[in-house]
Amino acid sequence: MLAFNAPAVPAKTIAVLDALGMKPATDPALVFKAAHDWCVALGCKMKLSEFGVPEADLPQMAEEAHAIRRLLDNNPRDLSREDILDMYRAAA
């Protein structure tokens, strides 16, 4: 989400990266890599498959996530079901 939202809230993205001790960036690819690498360094599992989530479940998961409007309505960028599915596929 940090990388997805970076174009909409560049100053906030830079502030988050700075708070985590990372170089400032607003390019989504660079933000994603920085945040991903930071989580990996902490020992976080970063693949849904590591939690036993089958790829066939991703479309339904995206549909259900998209229905949680209280979270999505407050996001800086509009998230479509496909945006969510793309994020899940990237984490599969």
Residues in β-strands, percent: under 5%
How many DSSP-defined strands? 0
Average pLDDT, rounded to a whole number, is 96
Q: How many domain modules? A: 2
**Helix share, percent:** 55-70%
What coarse outline follows from CA principal-axis ratios?
Answer: globular
- Note poorly predicted spans: none
Over all CA atoms, what is the radius of gyration? 14 Å
The topology string of helices and strands comes to HHHHHH
Distance between the termini: 16 Å
Main sheet properties: none
Q: Strand pairing plus helix content: what structural class?
A: mainly alpha
Query: Helical stretch count?
Result: 6
Descriptive tags:
92 residues; mainly alpha; 2 domains; 6 helices; 0% strand; globular
Please characterize this protein's 3D structure.
This protein has 92 residues and is mostly helical. The chain folds into 2 domains: 2-42, no CATH class; 48-90, no CATH class. The chain is built from 6 helices and no strands. It has helices at residues 2-5, 10-19, 28-42, 58-66, 69-72, 81-90. Helix 4 (58-66) crosses helix 6 (81-90). The longest helix has 15 residues, at 28-42. The model has no long low-confidence stretch (mean pLDDT 96).
Set down the secondary structure blueprint.
Layout: H1 2-5, H2 10-19, H3 28-42, H4 58-66, H5 69-72, H6 81-90
Helix pairs in contact: 4-6
Briefly say what this structure is.
The chain has 92 residues and is mainly alpha-helical.
